[in-house]
Write a structure and sequence with these properties.
- It contains 3 helices and 20 strands.
- The protein is mostly beta strands and 351 residues long.
- An 8-stranded antiparallel beta barrel has the order 6-11-12-13-15-17-18-20. A 5-stranded mixed beta sheet has the order 2-1-3-4-5, covered by helices on one side.
Amino acid sequence: MKKVLFSLVFLVLALTSYAQKKPAGSLLINGTSHRDGLTSYFTERFTEEASASGYIIAGKLNEAEYVLNYVISETSFSEDESEEAVIEQVIKIIIYNNLNDEEILNFEYIFNDIYEMYDYVQFLFQRASISIPLPRKSDLIDTTWQNKLLYLRASFDYPITFFSLQPDGLVGGIGAYEGTFSHPNRVSPQDNKILAMPGATAGIEFQFLNFMSLELNIQLSMGDTRNNYFLNLAAGAELKFPLKFFPHIVIEPYAAFTYPILISDIFSEFPLFSVGGGLQIGTKGGKNGSFFVDAGYMFSFTNAGMNNPYGNLYPQPAVIYYNRSVLKLGIGYKFGIIDRKTGVNSFIKNY
């Protein structure tokens, strides 16, 4: 009789749920039990049912619209003191709205052992989830693209490199010359140099915290102020701080470091490294990635020394010094390949 009643109730719930065609929201499933095996079993089964129903499974409390919390305990009773007590399991299920902290359902179900529940878990989930209000379609936003463990990044860059002339060894602080410094025969005024040529960056980003990630990359750029086809190569690292205030945008301020690998021979001296920072703004580009724009500024603590290009005409000084900085602009795409395990927030209500 019990199974017949169960079948009828389940059929009504299933038909009602189907008729509603309820869109799914985000749901956190959390539970405790006096036995570890029961906890893992019910969490896995409830998660399967929730996924099959279209719910977005939240990894932590602040990502969930609703919470399914369950507690399994053991109870015993006997109709007569002379008889041996009967031990039964009780699962208590609570659904509450995480947006306003309001409980919307609370019920219990008694069972004897886990084998009995193989046919009943779906019934329990349907009974619980049917109480969740219909969410607005605009609320059903998938933000998994913001929470990947690893991203592969590729971008087209347009770095603008500024070479600010330094006065070291120049007549009047600006002139290359022939003769002696105090009595030059000829002087050629020098000027600042600006190089704007295309480039590209490829890298891998590791998001080890919800608010922090590290990107390692290789940066290519064209030109050396005398040869537009020279290929510059540098290794870079960026410590990023992703801000996820909006479901379709991630704002990432970052601190950056670059180390030159391939340098043109027009330089006799070159800064060992550059530091700086920037801002990357990404928007959702598919389920797993994002399109982004990037703007950054890098500077060096030491000067770049260019070999004097004038031969015997203005041979002094042999090296002309510049302070080097780079304004980097770029557009690109990064693809997330592994979901980041956010874990379950331990601050779950105890019922």
